[in-house]
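Customer ticket, subject: "Can you confirm the structure for N-myc downstream regulated 1b?"

Message body: Hello, I'm evaluating your service for our small team and ran a test protein. I'd like someone to confirm that this is what the system normally returns, since I don't have a reference to compare against.
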Amino acid sequence: IMTGTPKANRPVILTFHDVGLNHKSCFETLFTHEDMQEIVKHLPVCHVEAPGQQEAAKSLPTSYSYPTVDQLSEALPAVLKNFGLRSVIGLGVGAGAYILARFALNHPDLVDGLVLINVNPNAEGLMDSVANKITDWTQTLPDKLIAHLFGQEEIQNNYDLVATYRHYITATMNQSNVSQFFRSYNNRSTLDVQRPVSGGNINVRTLKCSTLLVVGDNSPAVEAVVDCNSKLNPNKTTLLKMADCGSLPQVDQPAKVTEALKYFIQGLGYCESVYNLKLLIIPLRCNITFSRGSLVSNAYKSK
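Agent reply: Thanks for trying us out. I re-ran your input and got the following:
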């Protein structure tokens, strides 16, 4: 789904949603926020959905073999070619973040930057695999998706938000199709990335583009995102751990995510005429200074 008109000298924002969501339920709150209009006025947006994840989708044929997450990432170059896009800034959440990260690893020339929310670079561990098999017997699909999307504290304390997403999953999503996408994500392999070491091997396989990792401090993905940060090039990676934020930062705090996006995009060298360079201070245990072509993060703990 393309909004806006691509321009030869500017990338397109390419989004990919998480399991149990689609582009609407994952990104609508963010992209309809008033502050986000400054960005979409200058950069077109292309929303990608995994097969069968749109609202009111029909069940995929029984003969259909659902693609692996690797295959989904390898389908993205064809999407760019179809729309005549030269490069993108990827914006992904959860499973979508993993897919975009793998896409950027395999096609670095097509990706100017990545914003990865709740990314998990690791394959499902043995204990997780056993736990998932047990929950297959004891939990419904909506229960498993809610546990994937939200932390326990949020499930207990933010009833309205969780109930809204539970209703969305059960009332608008095709359960069979979602289950197949969920299975593909749970069968993912570990991203083959390694942090370059000064004085050591600097030609290791890693993300080549500037990358912004985002996670709410109440998210079940915190540990995975911090682990991902430890594996990437520190000169090209910024970790945003958002204080007092739920599991879906783009839904819970869209204004702050939009502000971070503005400075990230400006750091890539775009939209310079729109935003004044300055120090961005967000109460998320991280100061970020953006300058043309670089990002520098200085972490601190709030007292």
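A couple of notes from the result: The longest strand covers residues 111-117. Confidence is low (pLDDT under 50) at residues 273-303. Feel free to reply with more questions.
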